[in-house]
Amino acid sequence: MISCVIPISTALSKTLGDSLNTERSKISGIITKVENVGEANVGHYLLVGFIAVIYGLSIYYLLPLSLLTANLSLMLAIFFFILLGIILGLTMITYNFQSMLEFLLLKIILFWERKSMQILIVKNLIAHKLRNQLTAIIYSLTLGCLIFLVVMLNIEITILTTSTDIV
Q1: What does the pLDDT look like over 122-158, one tens digit per residue?
Q2: Measured in Å, how far apart are the chain's first and last C-alpha atoms?
Q3: What is the pLDDT of residues 93-115, one digit of tens each?
Q4: What is the DSSP string of 102-151?
Q5: Structural contact between residues 87 and 141, judged by C-beta atoms closer than 8 angstroms
Q6: What is the rounded distance in angstroms from the CA atom of residue 59 to the CA atom of residue 76?
Q7: Cβ–Cβ contacts within 10 Å for residue 42, how many?
Q8: Does the pTM exceed 0.85?
Q9: DSSP state for residue 4 in the 8-state scheme
Q10: Residue 55 contacts residue 81 (beta carbons within 8 Å)
Q11: What's the rounded Cα separation, in Å, for the pair 40 and 36?
């Protein structure tokens, strides 16, 4: 029932003429956003920067502390947060280089296609850029979490087999 709400709300948000018009494309290739310089909201940037500074300082201070005091639970928690930071960083890299990677893969995989077909595919990728970015973020986060889980499972299996071999 919940999945029916979004299409109904989008249909009701348009006028009847716009809903029945099949001549125009529903996908907008270019989104223009005009912002007034005096109304720029830097609060979000300051919050993210503050969180990143606290994250870096806590790792810089707590990791040597956990190593000196041999506090394994703190050390493992810090390594877990470092891995989460790596996954987040790699996700941001894929988000920023997505259009370049799409163009590169297009040239590598479809080198045999006609130039007109490649131009059509590039324009299609540009028109669906926002949806492709969301899909890329979800894919990279899922892949990063799966790799993390597989590595942790292998470490746990290794620890369990070596602990049973010792006993």
Answers
A1: 888 888 777 888 888 888 888 888 888 888 888 888 8
A2: 55
A3: 888 888 888 888 888 888 888 88
A4: HHHHHHHHTTTS-HHHHHHHHHHHHHTHHHHHHHHHHHHHHHHHHHHHHH
A5: yes
A6: 12
A7: 8
A8: no
A9: G
A10: yes
A11: 7
